[in-house]
Structure formats: structure tokens, C-alpha cells
Amino acid sequence: MADRFDDARIRTATEAQLLSFVEHAPADIAMFDRNMVCLAASRRWSRTYGRGRSDVVGLRHYDVHPDIPEAWREVHRRALGGELLSNEEDLWIQADGSEHWLRWAVHPWTDDEGAIGGIIILAEDVTERKLAERAVVEWRNRYEAAIYASGQILYDWDPRTNAVTYGGNFEAVLQYTREDLGSSLAAWEALIHPEDEPVFRSEIERVLRSGEPFCLEYRVRRKDGSYVFVNDRGAFVLDGARTVTRMIGFVVDVSERRRADQRMAAQHAVTRVLATATTPEAAAPGVIEALCAAVGGTFGSAWVVERASNVLLCASVWDSGAAGLEELRAETVAARVAPEAGGALATAWSTARPVVGTATADDASPRARLASQAGLRGALAFPIRRRGEVTSLVEILVPELRDPGPEIAAMLDAVGSQIGQFIEHRMAEQQLLQSQKMEAVGQLAGGIAHDFNNLLGVILGYADLATRELGAGHRTLPRIAAIRKAAERAADLTRQILTFSRHQAVARRTCDLNAILGDTEPMLRRLIGEDVRLSVVLAPNLGFVRADPGQLAQVVMNLAVNARDAMPSGGRLAIETSNVVLDESYVRDRPDAQLGPHVRLSVSDTGDGMSPTTLSHIFEPFFTTKEPGKGTGLGLAVVFGVVKESGGSVAVQSEPGRGSTFDIYLPRVGAEAAGRNDIR
User: Fold this and answer.
1) What is the pTM of this model?
2) Which of 60, 130, 238, 424 is 20 to 30 A from 407 via CA?
3) Domains of the chain and CATH, by start
4) In this predicted model, what pLDDT tens digit does every residue of 48-67 receive, in sequence order?
5) Distances (CA, A) of 527 to 363, 454, 561, 570, 577
């Protein structure tokens, strides 16, 4: 009896201790019988799940919590069947709609005879932790969404293992999936442009030594094989011991900004060259060199459109001095490119748009072959327009097209417009200066001619008096006749100067230029000789002009003599008339021209032609390229003076070895002629 009493006492004491342990346990714990009546519960359980009760012992669990989900009731039934069940995170939406996340375990307990007497539930309300985790996840998702929307690539690099993880918009930037990018720094390095890889490695070594932030711009290969410029910035994360644990950073596509910088730098470089150049010809080498520097070119050339034969002629060449370019330079200088020749240059001419392509594409010319041999695989060409018409082009050859996108074409188009505006401005400026200079020279020449003419009058008067006083047969008369002849020649020269300077009285009236040419043609044929073929084409219904007919005849004679002297071995002299209208685009950069209907007199020859330097002086009085004693230098000055006196203007086109064309525009008066042509 004593032993049984002792066992009962011990059991009672143990049960009491167990109940006390359960009641004071710092956890949510409760013990239930098979009917889910609470046998014991910790104070924390009562506070958490008692729903206002201080003690739930003796109460049926389902009465306290009638809203327990059926899924949990099934868990209780399974545990009463002997299963051990648990869940790390389980959502319980209570009757009031509040959400609670629970971490629980349900175990069966057995009585003295080994039968399952009920279950023990251990629970932990992890709602706060879950909400905190959810907030972290939401914050991370928002952060990643912001990074994704910004077009950046987020990376996390562990320098101890060289492992890299990525986030952000790497697929849009580089076209790779997360699997394509891999998880190592070596995989990323394999995408870096070979020219930039040494700099990348050097920057990595620097930051590992110093612990300073990483910052570098370099090129990365996309999945389609193209390269983009990226800006890579990263900073190290240190632990409590100030040891580097990882680097967090961003990679941003800066290709657009780089292209904008490149475009701006090229335009600024071209602007600096143009600002110091006096002529388009002088600016060409500097412009080509500046563009080559901007796009990585080693060979460039400028071309002008030769209208007569409809080909491009090389006007200037620049190269970097690298070996193997001598033959290409010589071939370029001698080349004549037709619009159907193919290649970037001809295509830019025919389409009037910038072209970015390969140096040999559709081009079988010797130039293309020599460019390929020199390692120049890329070509860029763009037109230069004046008054909407392509007048010249620039071509740049590069070893490799680093950025063949539309942005570089836009840059070339902007530079082409910039050069075209410069050419128009310089030509207008030069023509205005020439006009002002001629006006000043004319005023000076006119004043001198008047005084000189008065002196000649005295010489001729005294020569006449001496001849009469000496009488016939006097031995001095031949000398006096020589004096008179020289004075008469000087007087004729003076009249030409006065005509040029517009100081001579003229008899202007409405006249028919066709009629003047008809009267002058027989004399012209005798004047130019048999070696020169004369062609005269007179427009029907030609408008009238207001001028001195005698002076107009003098203009034609002077131009014919000039043309004859330019064709010592013979050639062709063509004289044509037509009705035209000078519009705003024509007179915009010609200060001496006027808007409106005009009669055009065109005189062209197939002679020696003139250089740009000679062209800039031809209307200056006493300027001549003829040998001493064979020209006064007043022929074209007289032409200029007569035309200006008649309210007209003169345009000249000439190239060495390609003849010259003088177009004289006189304002039309009276009846208007049909079939006019606008001059643009």
C-alpha cells in the first residue's frame, strides 16, 4: 500500500508540476482531451486565444473559437489519430476579418495505458514578423520595379568568390536573360569590348586595393552582337570588422548620351574650323580632320558636283598618315564618281541624305578595293546643300563602324547643314565685299579719268594748233601726229574707264537685245577668227531691257575678245539669250542681283578657264593675266560697269581647263515674254 501511495503521490506531484509548467510557459501552449476540452493552458495562450477570458481551462476549444477553419479541425482529427503535424506559416482570418499568421505544431498525448487522450497545441503568432517580411518584400519589389523602369541593371558582386547576381532591366538593355548572364564576373568580362577590357580590369584592381567606389564607362556586347556604352558605378559593403563582403552597383546604358556628346563635339570642332577659315576650300581639310577625330576615321575627302558632266570631283583629301594610304589618296584625287557608281558617296549624292555603311558595299571601283586593302571597312558620307541643291559632299572612311545607328546619320546631317550655311554666308560675304570694292575702285578710277581726260583735251588741242601753224610738209608734223595718236588712244582708254566707273553720260533707252546681237554678229565673226566656232541662239519673244545699245554691243565685243584670247588653238563660243525670273533663293546670297523678271545674256567658251583666285579679280580695272602690252585689264571691268549702270548683275562660272560662262542678267521692261525659266 505504501508503494502505491507513494506512486500516486509522485504522479500527483508530477501532474501538478506539469500543469504549472504549462501555465507559466513563455509560449502559446494548450492541452486538450479528445473532445477538445482544454485541460491546461499557458497564461500566454489564454491572453492570445482566450478572446477576453483570463482562463480557458474547462472550455471546449470550438466554443471559444467557433470560426476555426475546417482545415484546422481536420488537423485536430488527424492528430487525435496519432499524427504529428506542424506548419511554419498558416493564415487564420478571424471572424472580424483580421488576419493572423500562425506557426504551430499539434502532437497527440497518451494516458497511462498508452491510449491517445487528446492533443497538445503549440502556437506562435508570427503576424508582426510576417507583416515585416511582407513590407520588406514589397519594398524590394518596388525598388526593383523602379530600377527596372529606369533601365538600369542592378548587380551584387562578391569579390571573395567572384559570384555576381543581377536584377533590374538587363534584358531590355543587353537582350540577355538571367541565365545568359551567368553568375560569375568572368562571364560579364567576356561581354566587354576587347579594347575596353584592360581598363576594366585595371579599375577592378584599383578598387580592391583602395576600397574606393568603382566608376567606369565602357562598351558591352549585346546579344545581337552590337555594343552599347554603359556607365558602371558600384560601392563596397563592409561588415562590422570593416571587411569587404560585397559590392552593390548599377549599370546604366549611356549610349544615347555618348552619341549626343559625340554629335556636339563634332559640331563644335567643325564650328571652330569654319570660324577661322576664309573660304570653303581652306576649311575643307580641317573639317574632314575634325569629323575623322569624332568618328574614328583615318581617311576623308571632300567632293564637288561638276554639273557639266554630272560627276563628283575630289576637292580635298585628308588622312592620318598611316601606312598604306598613299595609293588610296592618289586614286581619290584622280577619281570621277558618277551617281550610279554605288557605295556610300554616290548613294549620299543620289539620295541627298547621309549614308552610314561599309566602304565596299555596291562599289566595285578601285577606290573601294584600295580602301579594303588599307583596312577601312566602314564609310560615312553626307551631302552639303545650297538653296536645297546638293553642291558638294564629304566622305569619311573608318576601320570599324562603332555606332552605325541613326544617331550618327543625324550628326552628319547636322554638320552638312552647318557647312552649307557657312558656304552660303562666306559666298554672300565675298560677293558683297567684291561689290563694295568695285564700287570704291570705280569711284577712284572715275575721278582720275575725268582729270586725265581734261589733260588729254589740252594735248589734243595744242597738237591741232601746232599742225596748223607749222603748215604742210614741216618735218615736225610726223612727231606731232604721233603725239596726237597716242593722246587719242589715251582718250579711248579714258572712255572705257568712265564707262566702267559709270561716270560717262549714257543714252539709255528701251532696246531689244536680240536686235543688238543680230547687228553685232557679223563683226563678231570677223573679230574672233576662223578657228573659233560661233553659235548664236536667240530666244523668241525676248523681253526688252533699258540700256545704252552701244554699250551693250561693247559688252558683247569685250566678252567675245576675252573668249577668243582664252582659246588660242580654237574652240567654241556660244551666245544665248533667254527670259528668266530671279527668285529669292537665287538673290539671297548675291547682293548685286534683284528679284523679278530678267533677260539673260549667256556667253560661254571652251577655253582655258580660270582658277578661283583669278575669278576673284577679273572685274578689277587693270587686272589681266595676259602678257604685257597685250591687254589693258579693262575689258571685263567695262562689262561690269555697263551691266551695273543698266541695273543688272553678272554671274561667272569657270574652272581651269573647262572653259568659262558669263551670265548677264538685265531687268526686263515692257512686254513680258512667254516660256520663262526661273533661276534658283
Assistant:
1) 0.43
2) 424
3) 15-124 (3.30.450.20), 132-253 (3.30.450.20), 262-409 (3.30.450.40), 506-679 (3.30.565.10)
4) 888 878 888 899 999 998 88
5) 50, 32, 7, 13, 20
